């Protein structure tokens, strides 16, 4: 496998990297993490990701003894070493080592940073859109959640959804409010005459407030395009005719279908395409050139 992994500053190939077998992240999922994307040597939204990492650490009382400057330097060093146009960076902080569930002694955290070639989306999903299967998540808590390594429920639900012919899961809470997909936030777009609504579920429905989600809201707001954070109930799905998922690595992915409801997110005059162009322009400004999001390759200079 291409790329590198740093374990407490020790850089290795993915095949040679090792963590202690008593690491609590491995034993209990006792960790927090952030995922970044880099084009060339530029990491998008580095500071917002590090800010969210520290919020997650505070929520779960996991100490982070490294400064943002130290973490940024190590990330930058890894991406400059990895020769790939689009890079996936995953920063994991575990509470340290310990076999007991409760750890009374002062923790000594472990730090693992992955820098690998980013996975590409399938051409079919990019051209036609993604298919989502609703699942109720009885474990959802109200309010913004922390980014931790506990994904077993999502993995199981995703496996079942794929067996039913879907690409991803769209979670709802116990009150039948939409929350998020397995690793992405959702925006839905509806038309009523000449009026267009762009809506995304709020933190109080129970979801991770994605960095790309926040970036999209800021871009739309600055362009004076109305966007609403509001409760979206399952019985409203039929009134929306476009939608997209967004995440740090996937970027913006059009939605083709939610359960049996078809959306038209990839049609020629879709609002989604205007939002996608707005986002692509911001990325080009940050990176210094226009990129093919899926491959990371330069399309043209700006």
From TrEMBL:
<dbReference type="InterPro" id="IPR001544">
    <property type="entry name" value="Aminotrans_IV"/>
</dbReference>
<keyword id="KW-0808">Transferase</keyword>
<dbReference type="Pfam" id="PF01063">
    <property type="entry name" value="Aminotran_4"/>
</dbReference>
<dbReference type="InterPro" id="IPR036038">
    <property type="entry name" value="Aminotransferase-like"/>
</dbReference>
<protein>
    <recommendedName>
        <fullName>branched-chain-amino-acid transaminase</fullName>
        <ecNumber>2.6.1.42</ecNumber>
    </recommendedName>
</protein>
<comment type="pathway">
    <text>Amino-acid biosynthesis; L-leucine biosynthesis; L-leucine from 3-methyl-2-oxobutanoate: step 4/4.</text>
</comment>
<dbReference type="InterPro" id="IPR043131">
    <property type="entry name" value="BCAT-like_N"/>
</dbReference>
<comment type="pathway">
    <text>Amino-acid biosynthesis; L-valine biosynthesis; L-valine from pyruvate: step 4/4.</text>
</comment>
<comment type="similarity">
    <text>Belongs to the class-IV pyridoxal-phosphate-dependent aminotransferase family.</text>
</comment>
<keyword id="KW-0663">Pyridoxal phosphate</keyword>
<dbReference type="InterPro" id="IPR050571">
    <property type="entry name" value="Class-IV_PLP-Dep_Aminotrnsfr"/>
</dbReference>
<dbReference type="GO" id="GO:0046394">
    <property type="term" value="P:carboxylic acid biosynthetic process"/>
</dbReference>
<dbReference type="InterPro" id="IPR043132">
    <property type="entry name" value="BCAT-like_C"/>
</dbReference>
<keyword id="KW-0032">Aminotransferase</keyword>
<dbReference type="GO" id="GO:0004084">
    <property type="term" value="F:branched-chain-amino-acid transaminase activity"/>
</dbReference>
<dbReference type="InterPro" id="IPR018300">
    <property type="entry name" value="Aminotrans_IV_CS"/>
</dbReference>
């Amino acid at each position: 496998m291409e790329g590198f992994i740093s374990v407490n500053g020790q850089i290795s190939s993915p095949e040679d990297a090792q963590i202690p077998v008593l690491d609590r992240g491995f034993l209990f999922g006792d960790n927090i993490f952030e995922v970044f994307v880099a084009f060339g040597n530029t990491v998008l939204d580095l500071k917002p990701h590090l800010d969210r990492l520290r919020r997650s650490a505070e929520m779960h009382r996991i100490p982070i003894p490294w400064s943002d400057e130290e973490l940024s330097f190590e990330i930058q060093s890894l991406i400059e070493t990895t020769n790939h146009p689009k890079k996936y960076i995953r920063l994991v902080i575990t509470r340290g080592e310990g076999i007991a569930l409760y750890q009374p002694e002062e923790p000594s955290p472990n730090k693992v940073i992955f820098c690998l070639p980013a996975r590409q989306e399938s051409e079919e999903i990019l051209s036609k859109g993604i298919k989502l299967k609703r699942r109720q998540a009885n474990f959802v808590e109200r309010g913004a959640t922390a980014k931790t390594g506990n994904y077993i429920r999502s993995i199981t639900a995703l496996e079942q959804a794929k067996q039913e012919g879907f690409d991803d899961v769209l979670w709802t809470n116990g009150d039948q409010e939409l929350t998020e997909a397995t690793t992405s936030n959702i925006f839905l777009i509806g038309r009523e005459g000449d009026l267009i609504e762009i809506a995304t579920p709020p933190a109080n429905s129970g979801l991770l407030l994605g960095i790309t989600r926040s970036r999209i809201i800021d871009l739309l707001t600055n362009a004076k395009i109305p966007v609403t954070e509001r409760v979206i109930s399952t019985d409203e799905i039929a009134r929306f005719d476009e939608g997209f998922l967004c995440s740090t690595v996937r970027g913006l992915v059009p939605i083709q279908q939610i359960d049996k409801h078809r959306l038209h997110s990839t049609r020629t005059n879709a609002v989604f395409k205007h939002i996608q162009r707005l986002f692509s322009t911001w990325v080009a400004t940050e990176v210094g050139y226009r990129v093919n999001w899926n491959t990371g390759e330069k399309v043209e200079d700006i």
